[in-house]
Amino acid sequence: MTYQEVLQSARGQMGPCKVCPVCDGRGCRNTIPGPGAKGVGDVAIRNYSAWQNVRVNMDTLCASGTPDTSLELFGHSYRIPVFAGPVGAVQLHYGTKYDDPAYNDILVAACRDNGILAFTGDGTNPAVMVAACKAIKAADGFGIPTVKPWDVNTIAEKMALVRDSGAFAVAMDIDAAGLPFLKNLNPPAGSKTVEELAQVIADAKLPFIVKGIMTARGAEKAVQAGASAIVVSNHGGRVLDQTPATAEVLPEIADAVAGRCAVLVDGGIRSGVDVFKALAMGATAVLIARPFVNAVYGGAAEGVKALVDKLEAELSDTMSMCGAHSLAEISRDMVRL
């Protein structure tokens, strides 16, 4: 099954998502609930187009050989520097074919079986986190639960589930404080001070990933709070209209925290060439969300395999043509901003 066949199979099964030939945010702008961005909906479009405006510098005057696309992070090895991004409330946003437990059961196991891992989502229904952690536990802890920025008591309850899952790291999408359907709810979710986040990280007792960083100042604060990694992310444009694209801010953020924490990035990354660009601009790895939703809805575990195979082939080819034999050899002079 090719990824194009996966997309064809997914069409008509994903609620408001049209499974466009190019997933660039144009077909779903201002569609929430659904896959789109908030407000005028141009942030998702900017995320995609910003990567396309970065060009790669070809250089084949180098030794030949098959590039090593593997990544070491948090004491584990991955086939490629790509993780499936966290997605929650799939029935709300993508139709009724799967609920969150069924989606995570497929995604977490399939990612593990194909040499990467999945971040799992959280939701207003407590059963979402319970099921996500259950799927990770069944995969021998090979997944990263993502907790929303709830009140302190709710976070403590969810962290207990995380520890029981055996996960070797945990994430918080701190920018989820801006999700429209999380506002004015009980339990409340909201932004955190550096001191509040530092306490959450200390209590977690696991490598902690802070997702939703869009400025060098924000990255500095995450490091100050004790983050082991950050994710440069604007939540796909779903939490604040008119933000920059992630590709636009990645280099300055990577420079600001160089060597002090891992830097991941998401938003509009659709190919192995895009993955190469992100690494050249300072990222340690990337998160990709929407294409993995397409993969599960269009082909279940086989769809996930098709996507990972595609991304690996594209990344390996780009590395070969740009003279990088390993991820460590990918440098900023290999792209033109």
TrEMBL record:
<dbReference type="InterPro" id="IPR037396">
    <property type="entry name" value="FMN_HAD"/>
</dbReference>
<keyword id="KW-0285">Flavoprotein</keyword>
<dbReference type="InterPro" id="IPR000262">
    <property type="entry name" value="FMN-dep_DH"/>
</dbReference>
<dbReference type="InterPro" id="IPR013785">
    <property type="entry name" value="Aldolase_TIM"/>
</dbReference>
<comment type="similarity">
    <text>Belongs to the FMN-dependent alpha-hydroxy acid dehydrogenase family.</text>
</comment>
<keyword id="KW-0560">Oxidoreductase</keyword>
<dbReference type="InterPro" id="IPR012133">
    <property type="entry name" value="Alpha-hydoxy_acid_DH_FMN"/>
</dbReference>
<protein>
    <recommendedName>
        <fullName>L-lactate oxidase</fullName>
    </recommendedName>
</protein>
<keyword id="KW-0288">FMN</keyword>
<feature type="domain" description="FMN hydroxy acid dehydrogenase">
    <location>
        <begin position="46"/>
        <end position="337"/>
    </location>
</feature>
<dbReference type="Pfam" id="PF01070">
    <property type="entry name" value="FMN_dh"/>
</dbReference>
